[in-house]
Amino acid sequence: MFISCFFFPDPQADRGQGVHPEDLLPPTIEVDVKLIEGLVVKAGSNIVLPAKMTGIPIPTAKWMTDGNEIASEGHYHIESAGSSTILSIPECKRGDTGEYILTVSNPAGSKTVALHVTVLDLPGPPIGPINILEVTPDYMMIQWRAPKDDGGTPITNYVVEKKDVKKPWEPWSVMCAYRVPGLIEGMEYKIRIRATNKVGDSEPRELPQTILAKDILVPPEVVVDVACRDSLTVRAGQIISLITRVKGRPDPEITWTKDARALSRDKRTEINNNYPLCELVINEAVRSDYGKYAIVAKNSSGQAQMCLALLQVPNSLRCQPPVSSCPGSLL
């Protein structure tokens, strides 16, 4: 007669029950050192974090990230069998960058290891608004800020594209502020900018309005130092120097006058226009230099005038560059 015996192992036996205390061994973890130093992958690829664990009884494994335990569901898949455990993240995203902590434990103790993952992706778009610093018929100057997210790797350059509203986009590679050349006066242009890292180009940041290629006109303004707005005094034979600060776009044409008559350069008279500073110099002052002096600044968007007075009395006086705006006419 034969007797058949079936033995059903206790699933808890391997986890510590039925193991004598003197037979317990604390857990250990073996992982590729590259995972500890840091795994770098591109977005869309699969992340696989394998580990081997030993101990008596066989340890249990727990994966965590950002202080939360990871469950084997949704975006994560955990496979723990025997002495191995594997955390898989298919089609990873930039947000999967971080530290993944594996803790294995049994009745004899626990062991923890941290694995580091960096997911590289395209950078975010440059931060707006795009600032227009200057526009002329030939070029424009634009400025922007770096993306909030560089995609996990440094921004290498930016691609600035301009588009005649009737033509395709034209790209240039540049850095964070750029002089966009090749404009045609009177044409309207769209502008957009992409950030680039070693993964590729970001989505563009586009200037919402079109830009007309023409000069930005600013009417002239003449500013004179307070010391030059009263009657000035010099001694015969000394130098008369009148200095003003002139603003305007395009650069204004400058005319100096004495008693309403235009002055020109001669052996005693110098006219120096180094914008924004404009200076009238009269060498070796004589009695006939007494009179009312004025500066007139004129461009295509307007005209400005400032008057000064000069008297011939002792002591010399030299005007310094102006420090405040004082429009109006003075004797």
Automatic annotation (TrEMBL):
CC terms in the record's Gene Ontology section: sarcomere
CDD domains: FN3
Domain Ig-like: 27-114, 220-309
Domain Fibronectin type-III stretches: 126-216
Pfam families reported in the protein's UniProt record: fn3, I-set
Recorded superkingdom: Eukaryota
Keyword terms of this UniProt record: Immunoglobulin domain, Repeat
PANTHER family: FIBRONECTIN TYPE-III DOMAIN-CONTAINING PROTEIN, MICROFIBRIL-ASSOCIATED GLYCOPROTEIN 3
Name of this protein: Titin
Protein source organism: Seriola dumerili
Lineage: Eukaryota, Metazoa, Chordata, Craniata, Vertebrata
